[in-house]
Design a protein that fits this description.
By secondary structure, this protein is mainly beta. The protein has one helix and eight strands, in the order αββββββββ. The N and C termini lie far apart (45 Å).
Length: 186
């Protein structure tokens, strides 16, 4: 009887540790970005969005974020070009099993190199919960890093549609991994 109780306790603790563990994330993606029809109504900003898909630690995913970026550039010690900070927004990652992971933007922005016609975007997201295997997700920070190249220009020659490639890295607390994480291709 003691053995059964001990095994039951070990199984219970083992399952609990799966949900309480911190999981390191690395995912790569490609997709597009453009001004958004959604208006976040944040003062002195324009609304942008990215729609990307990829694969990584948590399996195949899509990601859409909508964010307000300042209309006026600001100084940045990490940007050699012109820096437009992101001031509000969030996103949803959708995984192949239907699970959703919600995130809120906490910082970052776009560094535009007008000489070379390329943008570099780095955004920081705080985990804000989810559904399915992300039901208990809490804490953790994800960093979204991309390179954007213009594809389409408006009548004034201003780029309005971009290709985007990059990666998402960071940690998530309290998720249940499905399958063998080694099966996912980063």
């Amino acid at each position: 009887m003691k053995h059964i109780a001990t095994v039951a306790l070990m199984l219970n603790l083992g399952v609990a540790s799966v949900y309480a563990q911190q999981t390191s994330i690395r995912m790569t993606f490609s997709g597009n970005g453009a001004p958004s029809t959604i208006d976040l109504k944040h003062p002195n900003s324009s609304t942008l969005e990215e729609n990307v898909a990829g694969n990584g630690t948590l399996g195949p995913f899509t990601f859409r974020d909508v964010r307000a970026a300042a209309n006026s550039p600001q100084a940045s010690s990490t940007c050699a070009g012109v820096f437009f900070p992101s001031v509000a927004g969030g996103g949803i990652l959708r995984f192949q099993d239907g699970s959703l992971l919600k995130v809120n933007i906490t910082g970052g922005g776009d560094c535009i190199d007008f000489v070379h016609g390329v943008g570099h975007c780095t955004l920081t997201f705080q985990i804000a919960g989810g559904t399915g295997r992300f039901q208990g997700a809490s804490g953790g920070v994800l960093t979204y890093t991309e390179t954007a190249l213009p594809v389409l220009f408006d009548a004034l020659g201003i780029p309005v549609f971009f290709t985007e490639t990059g990666d998402i890295t960071g940690t998530i607390n309290g998720i249940a991994m499905q399958g063998d994480p080694q099966d996912a291709q980063p």
